Amino acid sequence: MLDPISSLPTRPPGAAPATPGAANNPAVPASETGAADFASLIGEAVSSLAQTLRSAEQVSVSGIKGTASMQDVVETVMSAEQSLQAAIAVRDKIVSAYLEISRMAI
Q: Which of 1, 91, 81, 78 is nearest to 46 (CA)?
């Protein structure tokens, strides 16, 4: 039998429990509540993307040399391509949001 949805955790593994009232209290900075800011999230995503692309490049070179299997090369390159497409989609959404905010009347 399947477990009910209510038994699933409501926060990601390793995340700190929410501080009661911290979200409604502007006097408590986000850094004190354990929340990551947007810039650090984007920075981590970009560094992860760069690592994925470097790995794909290294495996591709190994494939050209004949030291890596064709399956490894294809899997790694496809993973890098998916990561790059996701990064491009996020970038497009960020630019779109910025343009929408810049058009708002103050």
A: 91
pTM above 0.85, yes or no: no
Q: What is the rounded end-to-end Cα distance, in angstroms, of the chain? A: 55
Q: Which domain holds residue 43?
A: 36-106
Residue 31 lies in a domain: no
**Domain total for the chain?**
1
**Is there a domain that residue 9 lies in?**
no
Measured between alpha carbons, how far is residue 82 from residues 36, 85, 89, 99 in Å? 25, 5, 11, 26
Q: Could you tell me if 60 and 73 are in contact, meaning their C-beta atoms sit under 8 angstroms apart?
A: yes
Q: What is the pLDDT of residues 2-61, one digit of tens each?
A: 555 556 556 555 555 555 555 555 555 555 555 678 889 888 999 999 999 999 999 999
